[in-house]
Design goal:
The chain has 370 residues and is of the alpha/beta class. The protein is built from eight helices and 21 strands. The protein has two domains: 153 residues, 3-Layer(bba) Sandwich (Glucose Oxidase, domain 1), CATH 3.50.30; 200 residues, 3-Layer(aba) Sandwich (Rossmann fold).
Length: 370
């Protein structure tokens, strides 16, 4: 148990003038970004290390945060080469964290540090003691907006992450190899890839070549292509879309998750748009088209695919039960498909983990996602 030390005032300022004052924790520094909210009850270490949150100030709606601390990242024997055991990347990607009540201590068998101390080491500030319910209601009604977390009255400039190519900042710069026991090879395009996507593929005996976002894989020997999740506006990744469009000429399975789903749609000729406040949490219900089957999914995205713009050879696969937005597409004749949610979870339910099995089978039998 490690009690918090020191008290420093801070406030969150939204671009519409809304302010909420509280107490600072983590790194004592001011930052700016896009303010978004997550409705999950647990999983803050995984969410905070998810590259999809790059450039964002994250508001957690669950009222008590930090009570189970931060887990040990595992010994080398417990890790898979470059992958962490409990996190989804090697560092924290959020700009800042906003919570209602921060637990001053922690208690869990796997914990080695407090949330505040961990954030301080990663130079990430936090704000607690604010009404996150009122803040979330404002973001739901007015939409996610730019904000500043100001510590000790030190101002910073506004910063809109959506005008940048955030993927270029979080993607690897050189290919990485993750061997498995099977013979099939998958090229995984890193758009801000969560580690559990790699784990999920390797667990199924698939050898994974993880490549940068702008890597031209069209001439690479591979049995399938996998497009990862990632941050920001998908239209900023013009090189990825161009390479993927060229890659459609290859007769191999291609599957996408989250930002990878949006890339699939754009490469196919469809359109994407920004959601009012996005889907972030581990409780998003998605229904498979043509069935009454509803899956509870983990999600983290601020953009969506306009399924009305899909070409005739593509069809919707899943839709969100809350707002009807598109959650998946599939080609009518080929092994090309993608989903907006996260079947790899971490955090979240594993309801759709079977989609990795379907992808693995498609490498052997060239099945269609129908």
């Amino acid at each position: 148990m490690h009690p918090m030390k020191g008290i420093m005032k801070a406030e969150l300022v939204l671009e519409d003038g809304y302010r909420c004052e509280g107490t600072a924790f983590g790194a004592p520094m001011s930052v700016a970004g896009e303010v978004v909210f997550n409705t999950g009850m647990v999983g803050y270490p995984e969410s905070m290390t998810d590259p999809s949150y790059a450039g964002q100030i994250l508001v957690l709606t669950y009222p008590l945060v930090g009570n189970y601390g931060i887990p040990v990242n595992g010994t080398p024997e417990e890790q898979l080469d470059l992958l962490s055991k409990h996190f989804e990347s090697s560092r924290i990607h959020i700009r800042a964290l906003v919570v209602s009540r921060l637990s001053p201590g922690y208690s869990h068998w796997s914990a080695i540090d407090s949330l505040s101390a961990w954030m301080q080491r990663h130079n990430v500030p936090g704000l607690h003691g604010v009404d996150t319910r009122a803040l979330t209601k404002r973001l739901r009604s007015k939409g996610c907006m730019l904000g500043k977390l100001l510590v000790d009255d030190k101002d910073v400039a506004w910063d809109d992450p959506n005008v940048k190519n955030l993927v270029a900042d979080v993607s690897i710069t050189e290919p990485q190899w993750f061997p498995a026991e099977g013979e099939k090879k998958v090229v995984l395009v890193d758009l801000g890839c969560k580690d559990n996507i790699v784990r999920s593929l390797v667990r199924r005996g698939l050898n994974v070549l993880k490549v940068p976002w702008d890597y031209d894989w069209t001439g690479e020997e591979a049995d399938g292509i996998f497009l990862s999740n990632g941050p920001g506006d998908p239209k900023k990744c013009e090189d990825t879309i161009r390479i993927l469009r060229k890659g459609f000429d290859r007769d191999i399975p291609i599957f996408g998750i989250c930002l990878g789903h949006q890339m699939m749609a754009l490469a196919a000729g469809a359109d994407t748009y920004k959601l009012k406040f996005g889907h972030r949490g581990q409780n998003q219900p998605c229904i498979e088209v043509g069935t009454k089957r509803c899956y509870i999914t983990s999600q983290n995205h601020g953009f969506a695919v306009d399924e009305r713009s899909l070409p005739p050879e593509w069809s919707p696969w899943f839709f969100n039960a809350n707002d009807g937005t598109n959650e998946g597409i599939r080609h009518k004749d080929r092994s090309l498909a993608s989903v907006q949610f996260h079947p790899e979870a971490r955090p979240g339910p594993s309801d759709t983990d079977h989609l990795f099995d379907t992808f693995a089978r498609s490498l052997k039998h060239a099945i269609q996602y129908s």
